[in-house]
Amino acid sequence: MTNKLRSKFGRGDVGVLSRRTLHGGYIRVDELVLRHRLFGGGESGEVRRELIVRPRGVGILLYDPMRREAVLVRQFRVGMIDEERSPWMLELVAGMVDGDEDPLQVARRESREESDMDPVKVIQICDYYNSPGVGNERITLFCGQVDASAAGGIHGLAAENEDIEVVVVPYGDLVAAVESGLINNAMTIIAVQWLQLHESELDRLFGDSA
Predict the structure, then answer these.
(1) CA angle 78, 79, 80 (to 5 degrees)
(2) What is the pTM of this model?
(3) Which residues are catalytic?
(4) Alpha-carbon dihedral sign for residues 145, 146, 148, 152
(5) I want to staple 97 with a disulfide (CB 3.0 to 4.6 A). Which of 56, 65, 112, 168 is the partner?
């Protein structure tokens, strides 16, 4: 990796002057006052930012390489409430990491809860930050090998008000849905584009996984 891809600044180049929680409900919001180093030299003035504080998240693309079908889920998402097309989003199985949980185990658990599928093998795709301009949510993406012929139904935990429809999507339709904008959330788009790059070598990748 070339030096140009690495920042010359690190965590020590930011000074947090104060931090307090403004809201601690379903979504936690902190207010920070900070200073940071500048590319041109010196230090910034006081910068005030609101930060959405979220646990680490996981998403898993459930895929059947033999049938070339993905198992996605559809559910209501409040962030889509103003979306004219529909607030019901087609997306990956996903969930939140609780404390020191292993993200891989969370991905397997969420697969069972949201789709009633138990992946045979799982590959890690990547880590990324969902919206670092306003939040600290870090996402770990996986791809899990499943038998899509057994997929279907309505799932989720009633205690968490989950009402989740399982949707089986052929590979060609999956790619077309991303290209047309029908699939319009970052987690699913990233996973599908990874699949486009690696679908021909899934047998090897799954063979190397646990």
Answers:
(1) 85
(2) 0.92
(3) 160
(4) negative
(5) 56
Structure tokens at 210: 């646990």
Q: How far apart are CA 149 and CA 53, in angstroms?
A: 39
Task: Name the residue ranges covered by the structural domains of the chain.
Answer: 9-53, 57-207
pLDDT digits (tens, 9 = 90+) for 151-195: 999 998 888 888 999 999 999 999 999 999 999 999 999 999 999
Q: Identify the sign of the CA torsion 75, 77, 80, 81.
A: positive
The confidence band for 113, taking pLDDT boundaries of 50, 70 and 90, is: very high
54-66 pLDDT, tens digit each: 999 999 999 999 9
Strand 28-36 relative to strand 14-24: parallel, antiparallel, unpaired? Answer: antiparallel
- Give, for 88, the enclosing helix (H) or strand (E): strand 88-91
Neighbouring residues of 101: CB distance < 8 A, sequence distance ≥ 6: none
Q: What are phi and psi of 42, to 5 degrees?
A: 80, -160
| Nearest residue to 169 via CA among 59, 117, 91, 88 | 91
What residues are paired with 155 via a beta bridge? Answer: 164
Token pair for 127: 């880590």
- Of the options 3.90.550.10, 3.30.450.150, 3.40.720.10, 3.90.79.10, the CATH number for the domain spanning 57-207: 3.90.79.10
CA distance 12 to 192: 36
Whether the Cβ atoms of residue 150 and residue 128 lie closer than 8 Å to each other: no
Is the CB of residue 50 less than 8 Å from the CB of residue 134?
yes
